[in-house]
Design goal:
Blueprint lengths: L3 E2 L2 E2 H14 L3 H12 L4 H6 L7 H41 L22 H15 L3 E2 L5 E3 H4 L18 E2 L8 E3 L4 H14 L4 E10 L11 E11 L4 H16 L5 E8 L2 E10 L16 E10 L1 H7 L7 E8 H8 L13 H4 L3
Parallel strand pairs: 3-7
Antiparallel strand pairs: 1-2, 4-6, 5-6, 7-8, 8-12, 9-10, 10-11, 11-12
Helix pairs in contact: 1-2, 1-4, 2-4, 5-10
C-alpha cells in the first residue's frame, strides 16, 4: 500500500499479520493473532488514537488506509478460521470413527460359499423342462386376479357351493369380494384362451407354473402360500385318453418308472369329467404313514376335460374344439421326490434343511 501512518508502516504491518495468520495452527491461536493485530491494544488502534493532531485531509487519507488494512486482515482471518474449523471437524470425525471391520481368526475362518436356488425354484425349473420336452410352452399370469378370472370364467358363479373348495384371500380393492389373491393358476388358462381367440392362435398346449394363496392351515401336506403348475390343451379331437397319457408320461419322466399313478373320479366345476391323480407315497413306499394319512397314496393334483361352459365363456366353439386341463402342487412334487415328511420344512428357512438341496 506504500502508506505510513504515524510511525506505523502499514505494508510491513499487513505482511507481519498475514504471516502470523497463516502460521496459526488452531482457532485459539488465530483468536490471539486477531487480538494482536486488530484488537483494542493493537498498533493499529494506537495509531488511530493519534488522529486528533491530524488535519481533516490527513484524517481522511489515514482513515481510508487503516480501514483498508482492517478489511484485508479481517478477510484473511475469516478465511483461515474456516480452513481451521474444517480441519478440526475432520480430525474430530477421524477420532470418532469406529472400525466395524470384523476380523475372523484364521483358525475359525471358513471359505465363502455361493448360494443356490431354493428347492421349490429348482423343482419348478425341472417340471418346466419335463413339459417343454413333451411339447408344451410355458406361460405366466398375475397373482392378483378379479373374481371373474378366478371363479366366474371357470364355471363358478357367485354363491356357487363349489367356492367353498377354496379358502380365498380377498383384497380391499374395488367392490367387496371382487379382487382376490389367486387360489389356483387356472386363471392363466382363461387369459391364454382369450388371447388365442383374439389372435386366432388356437390350438393351445401350455403349462402355467406360479404361486397361489389359500387360507389353509399349514400341516404336513398343506401351506397357505404354495406353488402350482397347471397344464392346458385345447385342440380338435382331444379326448380323456389323451389326458391319461400325458399324466402317465409325466409321472414316469419326473418320478421314474418305479412310481405308480392312478386316476379316481372327482368333481371340479371347470372340468367334466373330472379326476384326481395320485402317486405312490414316496415316504412309505405305499405302506402307509403320517404324510399320506396311512393310505399309501399321495394326491398330486386334479385333472379333467375342459367344461364346454368354460370354452363358451372365452368364445371358443365347443362343438369344434375340446381340451383337457390338469394341475398339481410343485411343493408336493418336491416333497415326494425328496421324501420330505412335513411340507412346512420348505418355508422354515432352516439352513440345515436348505443346504441339503
Amino acid at each position: 500500500m506504500g502508506v505510513t501512518v504515524g510511525t506505523l508502516d502499514l505494508d510491513a504491518y499487513v505482511g507481519a499479520a498475514d504471516a502470523a495468520i497463516r502460521a496459526a495452527s488452531s482457532t485459539d491461536a488465530l483468536d490471539a493473532v486477531a487480538a494482536e493485530y486488530l484488537g483494542k491494544k493493537s498498533q493499529l488502534a494506537l495509531v488511530q488514537r493519534t488522529f486528533g493532531s491530524l488535519s481533516d485531509e490527513e484524517k481522511r487519507t489515514a482513515g481510508a488506509a487503516l480501514q483498508q488494512v482492517r478489511s484485508t486482515l479481517d478477510g484473511a482471518i475469516s478465511g483461515r478460521r474456516e480452513a481451521l474449523a474444517a480441519a478440526e471437524r475432520l480430525e474430530q470425525l477421524e477420532a470418532d470413527r469406529l472400525d466395524l471391520t470384523e476380523v475372523v481368526p484364521a483358525q475359525v475362518r471358513r471359505p465363502l460359499r455361493r448360494g443356490h436356488q431354493h428347492l421349490i425354484s429348482q423343482t419348478q425349473a425341472e417340471l418346466e423342462d419335463v413339459f417343454v420336452g413333451m411339447g408344451f410352452t410355458v406361460a405366466d399370469g398375475p397373482e392378483v386376479e378379479t373374481d371373474w378370472y378366478n371363479f366366474e370364467a371357470l364355471n363358478i358363479p357367485p354363491a356357487h357351493p363349489a367356492r367353498g373348495m377354496w379358502d380365498t384371500f380377498y383384497l380391499e380393492l374395488g367392490d367387496p369380494e371382487t379382487v382376490v389373491l389367486r387360489t389356483h393358476t387356472s386363471p392363466v388358462q382363461v387369459h391364454l384362451m382369450e388371447e388365442a381367440v383374439a389372435n386366432n392362435t388356437l390350438p393351445i398346449h401350455a403349462v402355467m407354473p406360479g404361486r397361489c394363496f389359500r387360507r389353509d392351515t399349514p400341516d404336513a401336506r398343506h401351506l397357505h402360500t404354495f406353488h402350482q403348475i397347471e397344464g392346458l390343451v385345447i385342440d380338435e379331437g382331444i379326448t380323456f385318453t389323451d389326458l391319461a397319457g400325458v399324466i402317465q408320461t409325466f409321472t414316469t419322466a419326473y418320478f421314474g418308472p418305479a412310481m405308480s399313478s392312478r386316476l379316481r373320479p372327482a368333481f371340479f366345476p371347470f372340468t367334466e369329467p373330472s379326476a384326481e391323480f395320485e402317486i405312490t407315497c414316496a415316504i412309505c413306499q405305499g405302506a402307509g404313514c403320517r404324510t399320506c394319512s396311512q393310505t399309501g397314496w399321495i394326491e398330486l393334483g386334479g385333472c379333467g376335460m375342459v367344461d364346454p361352459a368354460v370354452l363358451d365363456a372365452v368364445g371358443i366353439d365347443a362343438t369344434r374344439y375340446s381340451g383337457f386341463a390338469f394341475g398339481f402342487g410343485i411343493d408336493r412334487c418336491a416333497q415326494m421326490r425328496y421324501q420330505i415328511a412335513d411340507m412346512r420344512a420348505l418355508v422354515e428357512n432352516d439352513l440345515r434343511f436348505v443346504e441339503q438341496f
